[in-house]
Design brief:
about 150 residues, alpha+beta, 8-stranded mixed sheet, 8 strands, globular
Length: about 150
């Protein structure tokens, strides 16, 4: 079965933590969305803001990688917060604004309400769209080459 392609949504601040530690987390740590993802799938993070609950608008792709082996697992972040995560091998790339890509991506093209689907926190996209995002970020996601722990 071919790898699937996903967009995950989180603030850039949270994405940077995940990149640095080699994991992804979505929907405030819920497990169910992470069960839809399989090892070998590609994931790109879209960050509407730089800071969690921030008012700033970043609207950029901030990380891209390949989901690692294993199932979702729970982490203890203290204070009773135990979010579910998946391991990800992050590729090297640059944070990339979404606006120049809007007319090119199938999931945003000709859609004035393009931001609506990001509210779901995780959604599947076409392989062509993942390739466009990877190219814009300067990342090679073709075979896992060029991956590292940081974007």
């Amino acid at each position: 079965m071919s790898p699937r392609n996903w967009i995950a949504v989180a603030s850039a601040e949270h994405v940077r933590i995940g990149r640095g530690q080699g994991f992804m987390q979505v929907c405030h740590g819920k497990c169910a969305p992470l069960r839809r993802i399989a090892p070998g799938d590609h994931v790109a993070y879209y960050s509407p803001t730089d800071a969690f609950r921030g008012k700033d608008r970043l609207q950029a792709f901030t990380a891209i990688g390949v989901v690692g082996p294993g199932a979702p697992y729970q982490a203890d972040m203290g204070g009773g917060f135990q979010p579910f995560r998946r391991d990800v091998l992050w590729h090297t790339g640059v944070e990339t604004p979404i606006r120049p890509l809007l007319p090119l991506l199938a999931f945003t093209r000709d859609n004035k309400n393009w931001g609506y689907q990001f509210r779901f926190g995780l959604f599947e996209i076409e392989g062509r769209d993942m390739t466009l995002i990877a190219d814009a970020m300067g990342a090679d996601v073709g075979n896992g080459a060029g991956a590292d722990r940081q974007l």
